[in-house]
Amino acid sequence: MAKRKAIRKKTARKTRKVAKARKKRVVRKTRKKARKAVKKVRKAKKSTPRKKATRKRSKKTRKVAKKARKKPVRRKAPKRDNAAKQRTTSRKRVYNLTREVPDHQYFILANGKPVKHVAELASLLDQLEEHVFDHHVTPDKNDFHSWVKDVFADVQLARKIAGVGSKKRLQLVIYKHLAGHE
User: Fold this and answer.
1) For a designed S-S bond to 143, which of 35, 47, 136, 162 qualifies (C-beta 3.0 to 4.6 A apart)?
2) Range(s) of the domain holding residue 140
3) What beta strand segments (E) does the chain contain?
């Protein structure tokens, strides 16, 4: 009897460790994917050429403009405790947004595809047809905002999503939130 209890405890510990390790892997993969997406967008922004000003300034106006520019303020690096705290909240956020919800809380798209969590929504936005997206996001309503707010209780992300009107922008907002870039 005592041996059985000991064996049960041991197996329970092992299963908890395995589940915890699995969660960490999912969080790492999702954060890595989000970081890549953010880098890709930043790279695309940098590569677009900027228009040069057509009007030339006189020497006097250039000097005035130069004086008016403020020197950047150096900020102190955050303490390690604070950085560690931010990392853990970011991990919790990613885990919360990548956990699968019960079947009745899936987001069913207009074309019939179910979306299980926010990270899956972000990855599906590439293949999503424009008319399906327009069905869920209009100037009057945003179904994704309601789903995130009600199911995942992430008010921060829901507010960010509320004003988004395009698929690419929505995807970027979600990936940035998952990566921890506010």
Assistant:
1) 136
2) 25-34+93-182
3) 107-108, 114-115
* CA distances for 75 relative to 80, 81, 135, 180, angstroms: 15, 17, 45, 20
179 in a domain, yes or no?
yes
Cα within 13 Å of Cα(177), Cβ side: 24
**Rg, Å, the chain Cα set:** 23
Provide the domain count of the chain: 1
Q: pLDDT per residue over 108-132, tens digit each?
A: 999 999 988 888 888 898 899 999 9
Residue 30 counted as domain residue:
yes
The answer as to whether 129 is a domain residue is yes
Q: What is the pTM of this model?
A: 0.52
What tokens were used for 70? Answer: 């403020």
Residue 41 lies in a domain: no
Across 14-28, 92-106, 151-165, which has the greatest mean pLDDT?
151-165
- Residue 85 has a pLDDT of 46
